[in-house]
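Hi R.,

As promised, here are both runs. First protein below:
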Amino acid sequence: MDGDVSSRVQTVDVGDVLAAQARLRRYLPPTPLHYAERFGCWLKLENLQRTGSYKVRGALNALLAARERGDHRTVIAASAGNHAQGLAWAAYRLGVNAITVMPRCAPQTKIAGVAHWGATVRLHGDSYDEAKAFAAELALQNDYRVLSAFDDPDVIAGQGTVGLELAALAPDVVLVPIGGGGLASGVALAMKSQGVRVIGAQVEGVDSMLRALRGDCVPREPAATLADGVRVKVPGQLTRQLLSHLLDDVIVVREAELRETLVRLALEEHVIAEGAGALALAAGRRVAGKRKCAVVSGGNLDAGVLAQLLSEVRPRAPRRPRRRHREQPAQAPLEPAITTLRPTPLNPPFRTVAVRTRNEELIA
């Protein structure tokens, strides 16, 4: 846990999410909702957010809150890509110095996105956890402020604004992907007071949060997955504490299900999502709900990866929609009514009109 988190655990509540919404309103417009009819599920399109991911919400809120507290230190963060891009964009808008540490295996599109906004990029290690350790070392040496990608109260509150924007939809179930747990914690804080079920989604072999919630806190190397944005070895301690009280369930999705859902999203709904972005929708196929919504958390997918998926994955044809027939109330048969019309100026006597066709056939 970051050093400044433990003293502020009790301050993360719905009030913080509302304060974050007030801060972010002038910078980030609400993202749209889209009904994916073939999936029977609403989609919260955070892939259309600034920098292509919801992560910019938490990063920007953290920088704005720090400025209110008078903290003007250089900010450093470890990220697989989306948090780094969100921090770089927020730092650019606010004129703050930012350093991002990314694993060498991070997608090139995300590395380029960070550099585009002027943040310093340091590539280190082969996983998020190795990059995180290196970022903590640099922060200790240079008195930088470490901004966790998920285990920070300001970041959690910023991510919770996704849930506030869903209030108008009035869903009964909201599905969110879980890596470190920042998005799920924020959305649960925002929506549990409304009686909404919040369900997390993880990938088979990349389920550190689920194991932690069950009491298994032994770190294990996560499996290789298309959902690199949720490939976290050790989940957040603050997020774990929140989710243990707020989360209704966690669904573990197979890698094949995730790949098929991503391709179907692109082909059927014309929505480009990265692996983690399609995760909640993949889990939604196992969840019943009259008005369910899945958060498409990001859309920063390498073009080469998308091309390979489109060539390799052959999704099953969707089932034909069932027609719903409403039963008509039983009615007594109508007796034919015979009415004799008298010739009048308005009702002239009927005449037979002869029409000749091209074949000279007479039709009466």
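And here is the second one, sequence first, then its structure tokens:
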Amino acid sequence: MGPLTLAINSKNSSMSSSDVSNVKAQRLQMIPKKSFASVSIGEDKPFDFLKTLFEGFIAGGTAGVVVETALYPIDTIKTRLQAARGGGKIVLQGLYSGLAGNLVGVLPASALFVGVYEPTKQKLLKLFPENLSAVAHLTAGAIGGVAASLIRVPTEVVKQRLQTGQFSSATDAVRLIVAKEGFKGLYAGYGSFLLRDLPFDAIQFCIYEQLRIGYKLAARRDLHDPENAAIGAFAGAITGAITTPLDVIKTRLMIQGSGNQYKGIVDCVQTIVREEGPPALLKGIGPRVLWIGIGGSIFFGVLERTKKILAERRAKPLKDQSSESTKQD
């Protein structure tokens, strides 16, 4: 870049200050931008934590509700497969049992996850070198998962007990769980939930973000909605398959109720393997991979579209102000 500047100066040593500014602007445009951040909106502007948090809430909540509503029946079948012992039959009635109550928890949980993930990710990407972007995505995913677990776990406990026919409504489920097991009953299987969801969130979002980076570099453009959806489906399916054993353990611990059949995570694994064999840890892998694969497609597709709409709405007033300023000049 140095020789280019000298050549320009030697041809016209009497450049005005505005000309010099134009040269500097051209030089800045020639500097490649960092490609590791999945959200390029406002990268050259000061980091606005609250705005990123707010937009993450909206995008995450929207994506979470759409996915949960569309794929709830597959999730119900998966839960019943995992809960069945021995040759127990799977009931295919009431596949939407508990959906309304579940959405009450899914909306804030998804909103909280993305609301925490996005600003955390952007902050870490500014702190970490470019070759450690995967670490930033993994860390942000885990932090977002911890925050969302405070809402996700009670929601999951109520949902899965409704799916397995233990209660007739979400209100009855909450009331009876608290009456029989205390408030801690709503957090049954919390440790196994974190054991499953922290690696799941971290791995899924890391795979998704890294694939988007590679695809964008190859295509040399922003991705279209179908492309984001396809990458989300792949990331979800792979992560869902890897974490199926953790999901089985979490399901068994959450639905055991006050009987306390399992003493903890280790005892749960040992009991399942002893009584049903190691393959039981992969119960429901088919519906789970299908559910999360399709869910990843919908979730990330809706997420990126919502983020894009919010970014365009945010940029429009600035564009209008710029146009007004130009007219006045």
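A quick note on the second one: The two ends are 33 Å apart (CA to CA). Let me know what you think.

Best,
J.
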